Amino acid sequence: MNDITLSRRGFLAGASSLLALTAAGCTTTAPVTTQPVTLPPPISPEVVAMYAAMPYEQFPVPAVDLRYLEQRYYRQSVPYSTTERPGTVIVDTANYYLYHVQDNGMAMRYGAGLGRAGFEWAGRGHIAYSREWPVWTPPSEMVDRQPELEQWRRGQPPGLDNPLGARALYIHEGNRDTIYRIHGTGETWTIGQAVSSGCVRLLHQDVIHLADNVRAGSTIVVLQSPTTQPLSQDPSMGQAQLV
């Protein structure tokens, strides 16, 4: 199979998608890979099925364009050595992976998009609960930086254009909402990139799979890297949610 390259029309479509995403306030001006990656032949039917369209969702989810997803970010069960208990969610910020720890030294691994410079964080908390097709409320500081978000100050309705996507898992520290989320995205090229305002983003198909398998109250550990900040945030942020 020849390497897959993006046509001029595809390039323009990709550029339009990035402009729309920037306008929605959930990316940055930092460089993001928009060219399709080279895929080793062939892509297995199992992977194609794993990232197929989900037409029966409340808002039908399109299939993932696998040209934009590196093979290492495919969802897969892998050996994983950790002292954390099964059920724990671990975010490897250095490698853009999220692990859901399982029994017998294994974990389910997902490719992730993470916080860009100045928005990284690390620490321990727990998954308080999850929501299907949640409302997104941008923090007031984000609205101040991006006035086009003023229309969503009281919340953006759910849907494919909502920055939280198909599912959101809400990260708490004790009884306090940290305002960080694990949430869905349809922007395939952002997986493996530092693009968010601190949240952990997974493809819609992956975040649905994770939400179906993570129990409320499960520990989440975000591993420290040289640039990450502590998990704690200003409690005055209230119910606003970064993306």
UniProtKB/TrEMBL annotation:
Where does this protein have coiled-coil stretches?
A: none
Q: Which Pfam families match?
A: YkuD
- Kindly indicate where the leader peptide sits in this chain: 1-25
Domain L,D-TPase catalytic residues, every copy: 87-223
Q: Which GO terms describe its biological process?
A: cell wall organization; peptidoglycan-protein cross-linking; regulation of cell shape
Q: Which residues form the active site?
A: H183 (proton donor/acceptor), C199 (nucleophile)
A single MF term (Gene Ontology): peptidoglycan L,D-transpeptidase activity
Q: Which UniProt keywords apply?
A: Cell shape, Cell wall biogenesis/degradation, Glycosyltransferase, Hydrolase, Lipoprotein, Peptidoglycan synthesis, Signal, Transferase
Any Gene Ontology CC annotation: extracellular region
Q: Which pathway does this chain act in?
A: Cell wall biogenesis; peptidoglycan biosynthesis
UniProt-listed CDD domains: YkuD_like
Write out the similarity annotation: Belongs to the YkuD family.
Q: What is this protein called?
A: Lipoprotein-anchoring transpeptidase ErfK/SrfK
Its source organism is: Pelagibacterium luteolum
